[in-house]
User: Which sequence fits this backbone?
């Protein structure tokens, strides 16, 4: 006699993704199947080896779901996929690769054309998946070092560099903009797109950037998309960024005046604060800072 089927396959997979204040997200695909038909008491009894409990499957209410989730998380850690910041790094890699595929090449060309620095050392601070680093190297003779605080972002960037066959020109390492390992006055050009919004202490970070910048060099730091992107494209891209949730940590009150005060506090005197160019939406994330260190 065929055994009676107790669990029906759901029409589509479900996920249970609670979040904590630490940015921890738990994906537990097995929970709904069990919780829809089994009470927490059944699970506990079954775990204790009482076979009769397995025949007592009943539909569980919302409270039972919660209890069952807690039970599974503590009893079966193997069924839980823990996704920390690395998952955000992977998600942004896909987003940047597909949505910003025109932004990075055009931005790199803008920087190289404006400042005419095409050899020497370039640092990409907060490089993320490494797309700006790669475009800077592909369009010049610069040796590029990408730096990011997130180890998962570093791993992804290294993979991307290998795929582009640029490993002889681009290296990526884990590091903190607030305390970089580089010598004083070593970098000919320093770039960063989108990372200043996440710096814990912008004053200290800008001071550190200025320290490693070579006399006669230039730093170009900001969060815009560059002059090569049309106003219409910027409107579409900004909507996609908003929808993807990547502006959740945007310093909405980080005004031009605040940026000026930050740079002054960092001891930087030769700088220029600029909008993103045509189509600038006025978002404070889109401002750019040009920093120059006088030669001699």
Assistant:
């Amino acid at each position: 006699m065929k055994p009676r089927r107790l669990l029906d396959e759901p029409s589509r997979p479900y996920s249970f993704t609670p979040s904590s204040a630490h940015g921890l997200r738990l994906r537990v695909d097995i929970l709904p199947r069990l919780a829809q038909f089994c009470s927490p008491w059944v699970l506990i009894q079954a775990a204790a080896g009482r076979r009769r409990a397995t025949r007592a499957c009943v539909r569980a209410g919302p409270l039972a779901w919660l209890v069952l989730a807690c039970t599974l998380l503590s009893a079966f850690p193997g069924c839980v996929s823990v996704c920390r910041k690395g998952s955000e790094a992977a998600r942004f890699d896909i987003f940047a690769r597909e949505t910003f595929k025109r932004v990075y090449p055009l931005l790199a060309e803008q920087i190289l054309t404006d400042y005419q620095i095409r050899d020497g050392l370039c640092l990409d601070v907060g490089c993320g998946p490494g797309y700006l680093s790669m475009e800077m190297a592909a369009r010049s003779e610069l040796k590029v070092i990408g730096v990011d605080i997130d180890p998962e972002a570093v791993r992804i960037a290294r993979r991307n560099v290998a795929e582009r066959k640029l490993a002889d020109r681009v290296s990526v390492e884990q590091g903190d903009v607030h305390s970089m390992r580089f010598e004083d006055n070593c970098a000919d050009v320093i770039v960063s797109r989108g990372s200043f919004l996440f710096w814990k202490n912008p004053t200290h970070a800008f001071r550190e950037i200025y320290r490693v910048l070579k006399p006669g060099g230039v730093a170009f730091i900001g969060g815009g998309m560059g002059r090569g992107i049309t106003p219409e494209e910027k409107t579409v891209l900004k909507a996609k960024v908003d929808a993807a949730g990547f502006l959740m940590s945007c310093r909405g009150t980080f005004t031009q005046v605040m940026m000026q005060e930050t740079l002054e506090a960092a001891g930087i005197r030769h700088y220029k604060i600029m909008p993103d160019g045509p189509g600038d939406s006025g978002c404070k994330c889109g401002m750019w800072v040009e920093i120059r260190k006088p030669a001699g």
About this structure: Confidence is low (pLDDT under 50) at residues 2-60, 72-86. The chain is about 40% helix and 15% strand.
